[in-house]
Amino acid sequence: QVQLVESGGGVVQAGGSLRLSCAASGRTFSSYPMGWFRQAPGKEREFVGAIRRSDSTYYADSVKGRFIISRDKAKNTVYLQMNSLKPEDTAVYYCAADGGGILRLGLRDPSSYDYWGQGTQVTVSS
After folding, report:
1. CA–CA separation, 105 vs 51, rounded Å?
2. Tens of pLDDT along 62-90?
3. What's phi and psi for 18, nearest 5 deg?
4. φ and ψ at 54, to 5 degrees?
5. Which end of the chain is less packed: N or C, by CB atoms within 10 Å?
């Protein structure tokens, strides 16, 4: 059974940093596309960033220059380093994996991803 488990969320002051982890089990995703999304109350789930099979990374404009995605293939884990956090970054953050490896609807579309974690809350206070 495939599982993605996020951790590392919490409460932080504006300008602070957090690092989220997404540990996969049940299969290896070390060479598969992985994405990060977030959902704030009353809003739709939105793309944050993704890492492709090539390990190239892509980010939403709202987080570009502040967030960094990386992965540890040996640990089957993807990370989201979040720096210079803003109150508008407050949301539940989800990691996702594309089991087919082709991102059939593009890396920004949630429907491209087959597996999802349960989410971790990030709250940024002003």
Report:
1. 15
2. 999 999 999 999 999 999 999 999 999 99
3. -145, 150
4. -75, -5
5. N
